[in-house]
Amino acid sequence: MASQLIREWTGIQQFPAATQTRMLELLGKLEQEDVSTLTILVMGKGGVGKSSTVNSIVGERAVAISAFQMEGSRPVMVSRSLAGFTLNIIDTPGIVEGGCVNDQALDIIKRFLLNKTIDVLLYVDRLDVYRVDNLDRQVVKAIADSFGKEIWSRGLIVLTHAQLSPPDGLSYDDFFSRRSEALLKVVRLGARIKKQDMQGSSIPVVLVENSGRCNKNESNEKILPNGTAWIPSLVKTITDVVSNGGKGILVDKKLIEGPNPNERGKLLIPFIFAFQYFFVVKRIQRCIKDDVANESKAVWE
Length: 301
Fold this sequence. Notes:
By secondary structure, the chain is of the alpha/beta class. Helices cover 38% and strands 17% of the residues. It has eight helices and eleven strands.
């Protein structure tokens, strides 16, 4: 992280006063827990709003976005500091190409993250998608295979494009609940997460609306159709994930490359040699001695 340019977090001043106050309270809570650096990894398919969400969190256009431009091919880390606290958000390109997971893009992300510790994973998707499919499961599995399924214990699902009208016959909360449960099921299956792995907790799901058409409350905060000021809600969920305990995920060489096949079974070598000596070599030696002792000799010998 030392080589990363860390700028002062001036973007926080662009938020409405109520949002600023709440965010400072939440960040202060982290500092009370001796958390002075927070690193957030943002992943998902392309075009779901990852970069826009990064910009919304820092309160400035930190990552370039264009509706008519392809996503960047490399990850970008945005670092901001405020009163001794450092926020790092790592924006990544979409890891899907041609209807399947792009292993090359995933490898670039892993190399970029080498020797970095991930405190929180934001898995970004869209609320205005009506179904999940096998591709969603492939993406979740690829993330779990790359960083270990433990990363989902530090994860939360972010659903963008939340300023929508649900299909006829469904309330907003019902639609959000169904979409959330469908994605959570995919995460559990794709990452092979068992109930005991989550220790009774569930992966939180947060709604986001990055567009300028987002409604606002009397305090000028961006709100969802249910009235929630979503930026403080997202930051609170992030701090809750960090405060729930456990260590961040260190992306080291072993995690990226997997175990060294030459090291596999190395501890068994002395036992194998001992077995061969006592049950093979010694037996052959006894057989040879017995044959020599029982061999009939000529008279002249």
